[in-house]
Write a structure and sequence with these properties.
By secondary structure, the protein is α/β, with parallel strands linked by helices. Helices cover about 30% and strands about 20% of the residues. Strands 7-6-5-2-1-10-9-8 form an 8-stranded parallel sheet. Strands 11, 13, 16, 18, 19 and 21 form a 6-stranded mixed sheet that branches. Helix 9 links the parallel strand 9 and strand 10. The longest helix is centred in the N-terminal third of the chain and has 30 residues. The termini are close together.
């Protein structure tokens, strides 16, 4: 037997470096896995209740709107600052009264003798500001002039003697603002005697509503008619009538088929937004009882918007006998306002726009009036806590995660004269513009963006700019000025998905991006073809490059480990030198 007998410990020591190499390679593989594949986990699925999925029309919208008093404002800069602050807060809608008395002070004559100007001018400026800052207008039409039987300048709002005169005015309004102001509220709170000539007459309001619906639709089938909101009240006849009873009377008097959206009020009074409703209680969820009346009358398919919504926040020492809407603290007002809208979006799929009462007044409501304290912004433009809360709440909804979105979703911002199409012209709810310079802005988180759009012989072009970079949409054609664009012209009409950009972010994780789409002019520089959009789709497609790199590294490591194992086995078999 050899004097140099091999010891088991010596062989183990020779194999130890192999174990260490294998361990290091395993750690290296895990690091590569985290570095290359970890960041590419698919984002959470988008859960927005969009028009592409919702059975209720006009519900895939920015739910945040607010009432404004812009027609009372004298100074132009204050009007503009008000609208700008509304846009900065993330609001999507302005609800504004368009006074029949002011616009048509004499029958068939639209002239302001006092200021010697066209009586539309003031309202045209308001509509122009809304278009400039990307808000849509809900127009409240009421306030009958004296020549029509109204009582302007008094505390009692009297309806017209002949509802035909109001229908004529509404039709003229639609013609004047065709494609620009399409959401019309027909009268206001007729279940209060002070809003209907000192009496309750549901049948008379039903006649006015149905006649106006027919007349306005004849002018523009895309106009959207909203019922008069009914005041929340437990009155039984002295000053008004419970809105649940009044609404049933309206259905009995035949309003089915005479409106597109039912408008309701949703004040919270002194209760939190989730407080349960009751026929004898005034609170936010009383809207559910209004909905039940609709459903009992076969109108479950119709949506509901809220006309006036909010909580009042007077000081703690405010006289109790003047607290008509009860009282909450400013912090509660801010929290309840946001929580109530979130509650509605989660539990009421049939609800669309919720208009906060109110944004800012012009100085005609004194501090000893409880309604002074509903404001989101002071007369001097100082934001209240409710303004900041709304601004925070709207920020997240303006970033589109991967998913499909309707054209009125808050993720799709529009500026200019984008008309809403509500008939079958585009096959679905759509927006359309033929005005050069009109824009859509889409903030999205993903690496691909596509439009669902109408192509056809009248189709126009949309310039595409991604993240303010001229190179991000390099796969699109360029015009003679170097602008990348999507071309919607085609020999025949169809609605199809059109890629806008893809391949963003390289092999990295998805990032936030901004797409600005601008309607391009035709050769004459003034006109443009029609741009009709029915939806937006954001997606994230995982790059195959990281996986390919990872696979290559894994293959290389396997080869190295196999070679080391074979080498180690051979050494073990040979034993120590000279053995």
């Amino acid at each position: 037997m050899s004097a140099h007998k091999h010891k088991p410990g010596a062989r183990s020591r020779r194999v130890i470096p192999l174990y260490l190499v294998t361990l290091c390679l395993a750690v290296a593989l895990e690091v590569l896995n985290l570095a290359f594949l970890g960041p590419f986990a698919a984002p959470a699925a988008q859960t927005n209740a969009g028009a592409l999925a919702s059975p209720y029309p006009y519900t895939d919208v920015n739910p945040y709107g607010a009432n404004a008093f812009l027609s009372k404002e004298v100074e132009d800069w204050k009007r503009e600052k008000t609208v700008q602050m509304m846009a900065d807060a993330g609001l999507g809608w302005i609800k504004q009264q368009f006074s029949w008395t002011e616009i048509e002070p004499k029958q068939g004559r639209y002239w302001d003798d006092k200021y010697n100007q066209n009586s539309w001018d003031k309202y045209d400026k308001i509509v122009g500001l809304a278009e400039k800052y990307g808000l849509r207008v809900i127009a409240r039409l009421d306030d009958a002039p004296a020549w029509a039987g109204g009582t302007p300048g008094t505390d009692v709002h009297t309806p017209p003697t002949d509802p035909e005169t109001f229908a004529d005015f509404a039709a003229t309004f639609v013609q004047h603002y065709q494609g620009r102001v399409q959401y019309l509220q027909i009268w206001n709170e007729p279940n209060l005697k002070s809003e209907w000539g000192g009496k309750i007459d549901a049948a008379a309001y039903a006649r006015l509503l149905c006649l106006t619906y027919q007349r306005t639709k004849a002018v523009d089938p895309n106009v959207v008619i909203l019922t008069a909101p009914l005041a929340q009240t437990l009155e039984t006849g002295d000053r008004g009538l419970d809105e649940l009873d009044y609404l049933q009377q309206l259905y009995d008097d035949g309003i089915r088929g005479c409106y597109d959206i039912l408008l309701a009020n949703g004040y919270g009074f002194d209760q939190p937004p989730d407080a349960a409703p009751s026929p004898q209680t005034l609170n936010f969820r009383r809207v559910e009882l209004v909905r039940q009346v609709m459903e009992r009358n076969g109108e479950a398919a119709k949506p509901v918007w809220l006309n006036e919504y909010g909580w009042d926040a007077p000081p703690a020492d405010f006289p109790p006998d003047k607290l008509f809407w009860s009282r909450v603290t400013p912090d509660q007002q801010a929290r309840y306002t946001v929580d109530g809208i979130q509650y509605a979006r989660q539990h009421w799929p049939w609800v669309g726009v919720i208009n906060i009462w109110y944004f800012r007044q012009v100085g005609d409501i004194p501090p000893d009036d409880a309604s002074f304290y509903f404001r989101m912004v002071d007369v001097e433009f100082s934001p209240q806590p409710v303004y900041r809360a709304v601004q925070r709440a709207t920020a997240a909804q303006r970033l589109a995660q991967p998913g499909r979105y309707g054209v009125l979703d808050p993720a799709v911002g529009s500026r200019g004269q984008w008309a809403t199409l509500t008939d079958e012209q585009a096959g679905a709810l759509a927006i359309r513009s033929d005005h050069p310079g009109d824009q859509l802005t889409i903030h999205f988180h993903g690496n691909q963006l596509a439009l669902t759009a109408e192509r056809g012989p009248q189709g126009g072009r949309l310039q595409v700019v991604i993240d303010n970079s001229p190179t991000a949409a390099a796969q699109l054609p360029r015009d003679d000025r170097g602008r990348r664009y999507v071309d919607l012209r085609a020999a025949s009409r169809d609605v199809t998905t059109i890629p806008v950009v893809s391949g963003l972010d390289g092999i990295g994780p998805p990032q936030d991006h901004t797409a600005v789409l601008t309607v391009l002019p035709a050769a004459d520089g003034k006109s443009a073809g029609q741009v009709t959009i029915t939806g937006v789709e954001v997606s994230y497609v995982r790059s195959t490059l990281p996986f390919a790199l990872f696979s290559a590294v894994v293959g290389l490591v396997v080869l190295i480990v196999a070679a080391l194992i074979v080498r180690a086995i051979r050494r073990l078999r040979r034993g120590p030198a000279g053995g």
